[in-house]
Amino acid sequence: MPNDESDAISAFGPDFPFAYDDWLAHPAGLGAVPAEKHGARVAIIGAGAAGLVAGYELMRLGLRPVLYESARLGGRLRSQRFEGTEGIVAELGGMRFPVSSRGFYHYVDLLGLETRPFPNPLTPAAGSTVIDLEGETLYARTLDDLPPLYREVAAAYHQALEDGAQFSALQAAMRARDAQRIKAIWDPIVQAWDERTFYDFVVSSQAFRKLSFRHREVFGQVGFGTGGWDSDFPNSMLEILRVNLGGFDDEQRYVVGGVEQVAQGIWRQAPEKLTYWPAGTTLAGLNAGATRGRAQAIAHNGKGGFAVMDQWGNRDDYEAVVVTCQSHLLTTSIDAEESLFDQKLWMALDRTRYMQAAKTFVMVDRPFWKDKDPDTGRDRMSMTLTDRITRGTYLFDNGDDRPGVICLSYSWMTDALKVLPLPAERRVELALSALSKIYPGLDIAGHIIGSPICVSWEADENFLGAFKGALPGHYRYNHRMYGHFMQADLPESQRGIFMAGDGVSWTPAWVEGAVQTALNAVWGVMTHLGGRSPDGNPGPGDLYPALKPVDLVD
Ligand code: ARG
Asked: Top enzyme class of this protein (predicted)?
C-alpha cells in the first residue's frame, strides 16, 4: 500500500471510530472460539467482498464457513475480461479504491496485488481532463487551468464543509484517531444533518449563497474528488460528509488486472496462521471448490441453529448465518423467516434505498488518446466530465503495445435509467454520439476492437440496484442494521444471524464498508459461539459500548 503514514486520513469513524486495520494486523489475532466449536458450520449468504472476508476470518478461527452465491464470486468486485485477451478487463463494480480503505488494502497487500493511481479528473494519472458543460469544452491538467469559476466552486465547498461540519478539526481528530474528539464533533452533526439533504447543505451554506446558481450547477457536475455528485443531491448530507471526511473520493487506486482478483485471491488463499484446520486449508478447499448456489430460504432449525436451503432444495444446518447480499433480496429473492429479525430491523432492511449505476466499456486497439493534436499540442482525447449522457468517461492505458479500455460512460440515477433498457451496442452509439460533439473529428469507433461490455446493476435480480444511498431520515435505519451484530440484548430467537456488506455500513458504495461490517459479523459469530477477542486486541464489539454510533431518539 502506497500510503501507510500513521497520521494519514483513513476510514476511522466518524460514526464508530474503531481501528479495524489495527485489529486485523495485531499479532495476537482476532480471537478464539472454544475448542468444542471448532469445525462449527456458518452459512455465508453472498460471496462478495463481505462474504469472503467474513468467511476467510471465520475459517482462521477454526470454523467452517459455507458460502452461498447466486451469481458470480466477487459480487460487485466484478472484472469482466474482454474476449480473447489476457487481463484486459472492464471493472463493472468497484473500480477505484481510496488508500484510506485500510481494511480493504490489508487484503490487497496480503495477496500481493499491484495497484496504480486511478485516472480520475484533474489528477496526474489522468494526464489531461476535458470538462464539457452546456456545450462549452474546457481542457485542463489541473484545477488551475480552468476558469476562475471552477476554483470559486471548489473553494466554496471547502468553506461550506468548514462552516457546516468543522471539517478540518474533525479530520484532524480522525487522523489522530482521537475517538472522543471525533464523537464530540460528529455526534451533533448527525443530529443536525440526518434529515437534510446534500443539496440543502450546499444551498444553505454562506459560502454558496454568495455565489450564483451557475456555481451550484457546476458544483453538481464537477463536484469534488472524482467528479459530479449531483445525483446524490437528494441524499442525506451525512453520507456525503463521510465520503469527504474519510478521504474516500481522494487518492484512489485501481487493481492492475482487475479487482476481482481480490475476491478470487481470498477464496484461494491459505492463511499463514490458522486454528484447527491443517496448513494449506483455503475457503475454496473447505467449500469443495465451489460455492453453493443461491440461498432460497433461511429459517430457524428448531435446534437453536439455522437451516439454509439452496435453490435446488438442499437443506443444511448451521450454528450461525452471515447475510451479505443487498438487504432487499431478503424480501424478493430469499424466503427469510420473519421471526429472524425484529420488525424495526425489517423496516430498516426494506427501507434501504439503492441507487442505480450504469457503465459502458469498449476495448480499443491502443491508447490512441495520448496522440497529440498537431494544431493544439493537446492530448487527442482526455478523461471527460460532461452534462451529456455519458457523464464520466475514463481512459485505461494498459501499455502502448496492448489494447486500451475506455469506460465510455459511468452514470448514476436518472442518467443510468436512460440506458437501462438498451442493449450494449445502442449504449455505445449514444455515448459515441455525445463524445463526437466534444471531440469533433475524432474517430473513436475506428479504434474499437472486440465487443462492448456494459452493466446496469439495477437490472440484475441478484442486486436490484448498485449501492445504498441513504435518504434524509435514514440514520436510524442505518444504525439498526450496523449495530445488529451486538446481540446480547436481543431475544434468543433473533440471535446468531448477522449482516454485513457495504449496504449495512456507513459508507455504502465503498468496499471498505463491506470489509468493516464483515469484521463486525466475525466478532458477532465468534462471540455467539462462546469465543472472544484477546485482551490485548479488543474487537469491534468489545469497544462498541464505549464508541458506538450516537443514538437519535425515536
Ligand atoms: N464508490 C463509487 C465510485 O467511486 C460510487 C460512488 C458514488 N456513491 C454515491 N453514493 N453516489 O464511483
From this structure: oxidoreductase
